[in-house]
Structure formats: structure tokens, C-alpha cells
Amino acid sequence: MKAKIITALLLSATPALAEVNINPPATATEAEGLDAWSRIYEVASHPRCANCHIGQSDRPMWSGPTYGKTRPHGMNVRAGESRIGAETITCQTCHSTKDKDWDNANSTPHAAPRVATAWQLAPVEADWFGRSSFEICKQLRDPELNGDRDMMELAEHLNHDVILHWAWNPGGGREAAPYSLQEHVNDILIWGVAGMPCSES
Ligand code: HEC
Ligand code: HEC
Q: To 10 degrees, the CA torsion angle through 109, 93, 127, 80?
């Protein structure tokens, strides 16, 4: 009986991640690849992603309908060189990883979003906020700038990162990233099979 209760507590402490299938298409034309890219760009440039993917700056952004005006993170939060605020106050102090009910963890509007992993800024190279489609496309296909990932590794990363699962289910009245995580993964795979084409127009 006791063991059962402990198991139940452990299970409820683990967020339920939706299953994502990683099935690259056998073939994809360049036109299909560019089409998929234009949807990938809509996701990457969306506030739920771009607010953390801010390049050189160490100030996370607040943007999207629930924020009104686009501005740097309030309370003078700085991520520092550590990218996690270790020099001043860590992201996790407010973006807590402690919760037993992950399904409802982000139901309060304007509370700091919480996921079951340390909240932190994206790497400097993954610079998306306010960048053009062409700029983001070139970054994401370059192993030197994307964490040394090929198409399958990008798809795996998307599947395994709980921050991404949050971006499609952000709660608190926040607008979710467009499409779905599964559609985004499918698009990454189509774009990858097509040879990761980027277009200047
Ligand atoms: C809370 C901040 C945060 C948010 C929000 C966020 N990311 Fe990230 N992202 C990160 C961090 C941190 C890494 C580095 C993780 C790693 O390399 O394992 C990362 C890395 C990545 C990578 C790996 C490739 C690269 O260029 O480094 C991809 C792809 C990515 N994010 C996509 C997204 C997408 C798509 C969204 C929105 C749906 C998103 N991220 C939202 C913090 C964030
Ligand atoms: C003092 C508390 C506090 C600290 C420390 C903090 N945050 Fe936040 N953060 C918040 C609150 C509260 C919100 C939500 C504000 C709102 O919705 O009006 C937020 C929202 C955000 C958002 C926007 C999420 C979205 O809606 O897309 C990002 C990105 C973010 N924080 C990144 C960080 C990073 C990175 C750090 C560490 C360098 C950090 N925060 C440290 C309190 C904090």
C-alpha cells in the first residue's frame, strides 16, 4: 500500500509528454522543403520561442499578446554569461522546477512559467528574436551554430525538451506556438530531407 502511494507521487511529479513520432519522408522536393521552412520560421519567430532565443543579449524578452508592449524581461532580470542568471538571481528562483501537478502548473496568468527542467536562455548562436527567415534558416542548418545537430538530432531535441512541450501548451492565457509539436517535427524532417534549403526572399 505504502509503495503504491510512493509510486503514484513519483508518477504525478513527472510531466506527461505527448508522444511525437519521428518519421522522415522518403523524399521531399526543394519546393516542399521551402514550404516546410516557412512554417518552421513562423514557429521559431513566435514569442513562445523567440523570447528565450535572443542572441548576444542577456535580457530575456517579454512579447506576445499577454504582454502588451514588447520589452525586456521585467524586474531587471539578467541572464549574465552563465545564461541562467547565476551572477545575480537564477531563473529557477521564479521559474521553479518544483511542482507535483504539471498539467496545471501554468494556469495562473502572469506567473513565471514553470517546467520540469531548469529554465534558461537559449545559446547565443541560436539568435532568433527579430531575425529574418533567411538568418534563422542559415543558423539552424549549420552544425557549427546549432549545437552540432543533424536533421534527426534536431527532431529528437524537439521531442525531448520539456520547454518545447510547454511552448505548445503554455497556459496562463498565453498564445501557444503555431501548428503543433508533431507538425513542427514533421516540417523539420521534410526540410531536412529536402536538403535544408534557405531562400533569401
Ligand atoms: C525557456 C527558454 C527557451 C524557450 C522558450 C525555447 N527555447 Fe529553444 N533552446 C533553449 C535552450 C536553453 C537551448 C539549448 C539546449 C540544448 O542545446 O540542449 C535551446 C535550443 C534549441 C534548439 C537546438 C538548436 C539550436 O540552434 O541550438 C532548437 C531547435 C530550439 N531550441 C527550438 C525551440 C523552439 C522551436 C521553441 C518554441 C517552440 C523554443 N526553442 C523555445 C531555450 C529555450
Ligand atoms: C524575479 C522572478 C523572475 C526571475 C528571476 C526570472 N523570471 Fe522570467 N518571468 C517571470 C515572470 C513573473 C514572468 C511572466 C510575466 C508575465 O506573464 O507577465 C516571466 C516570464 C519570462 C519569459 C517569457 C515567457 C513567455 O511568456 O514566453 C521568459 C522568456 C523568461 N521569463 C525568461 C527568464 C530567464 C531566462 C530568466 C533567468 C535569466 C528569468 N526569466 C528569471 C519572473 C522571473
A: 140
- Name the nearest CA neighbour of 128 among 200, 72, 44: 44
The number of the ligand nearest the C-alpha atom of 153 reads: 1
Please state, in angstroms and rounded to a whole number, the distance separating the CA atoms of residues 69 and 71: 6
Considering every ligand atom, which ligand is closest to the CA of 169?
Answer: 1
pLDDT 10s digits, 75-133: 999 999 999 999 999 999 999 998 768 888 899 999 999 999 999 999 999 999 999 99
Domain boundaries, the chain: 24-193
Ligand 1 within 6 A of CB of 57? no
H/E segment holding residue 72? strand 71-72
Q: Is the CB of 106 under 6 A from ligand 2?
A: no
Tens digit of each residue's pLDDT (9 = 90 or more) over 7-17: 444 444 445 56
Note the maximum CA span of the chain.
Answer: 63
**132 CB less than 6 Å from ligand 2?**
no
Q: What is the CA radius of gyration of the chain?
A: 18
Q: What sign has the CA pseudo-torsion 49, 50, 53, 59?
A: negative
> What is the CA(76)–ligand 1 centre distance, in A?
22
Label residue 132 exposed, middle or buried (CB < 10 Å: 0-12, 13-18, 19+). exposed
